[in-house]
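Good morning C.,

I know you're traveling, so I'll keep this short. The sequence:
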Amino acid sequence: MSDKRHEATAKPRLGIFGAGNLGGRLTTLASAAGYDVFVGKRDNAVSVADHSQIFIIAIPFLACASALPALAAALKGKIVVDATNPLNSDWSPVLFGDRDDLLRNRRDCALIRYAVTCDGALLKPGSGVRRR
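The C-alpha cells, ready to paste straight into the viewer:
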C-alpha cells in the first residue's frame, strides 16, 4: 500500500486532556478501537496537543480557566472536542454570564461541544433516544 493511501485511511491521533473518569474511559475505548492516544495532564498537555489531530478536553469545567490558556497556540487548526460539563464542585450547574466559557469565541480551531451528562430518564425505553 502506498504511503498516501495509508495516510488517507489512518485513524487520527487523539489527545485526551484529563485522566479521570471520563478521560480514562475514553482512553481505554479509543485504544481498544485502534487509535493512537496521548493522555495529557497539566504538565504535558501542550505536548499532547502538539502531537494530536483531535484534542478532547475531559477535565473539570472549573479547571478550564486556568488550564486552557496555555494550550491556545497548540490547538490552532485542530479539532477540539469539549467534553466538559459546566458543573460546580457540588454538581450544581454553573450559570453562564460573567463566567462564560473560554472556547466559545475561538475561530482558529474546529470546536465540537459534547454534552456528557444527561438525565437517565432519556435512556429509558420509549424515550425516543436509541442506545447503540
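Safe travels,
E.
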